[in-house]
Amino acid sequence: MNGGKDELASEEAAETSRSMTENEQADRQPNPESADAAAEESPKRGDSCEQLEKEVEKWKQKSEEHYEMFLRARADLENYRRRARKELEDTARYGAAPLAEALLPVLDNLERALDAGRNSGDGEALYQGVEMVYRQLLNVLAEAGVTPIEAVGKPFDPHLHNAVMQTESDEYEPGTVVEELQRGYRFKDRVLRPTMVKVSK
């Protein structure tokens, strides 16, 4: 009896071994469906990589273009700064040139008036010549924006007038400029020099 059981057990073990071997061989054999799926997936992966490379190349080109634009813009800005700096320097150095040029004819006429008074010995002629130069100078200054500050008969204004004396006056109200001691001037809306005045008490 024991011998029969042993033989049966041996046969079952052999059958189990054969079954496992067949399964292993089946697993090792290629699966046609898996092979087909892999074959289909492979071109897709290739297309995806190629598309990705194209995208990378496109953005690389855009990056290079933007960098070149940045370099050009920076160079333009630096050139503009240099030009602006030079213009400011020229303005500071030569800004008074137009006024100086406009004063040259005044200087010429003053020299002529002095020569005329010296040669003729006529004081009246000298006075008239100097007065003419004075009027011409006032016109040149007015064209440049420099104008006299009116004072006599005006209420005293500390922004425009510099009171150095006070006096009694029957003609003017208290706090009124009665005499101009030194004329003041404006440059456009800015006071260059206040007028030195005498004010009524």
Automatic annotation (TrEMBL):
Biological processes annotated in GO: protein folding
Keyword line: Chaperone, Cytoplasm, Stress response
Annotated stretches, region: Disordered: 1-61
Location within or outside the cell: Cytoplasm
The organism's place on the tree of life at top rank: Bacteria
Similarity comment: family membership: Belongs to the GrpE family.
HAMAP family hit by this protein: GrpE (MF_01151)
Listed name of the protein: Protein GrpE
UniProt source species: Planifilum fulgidum
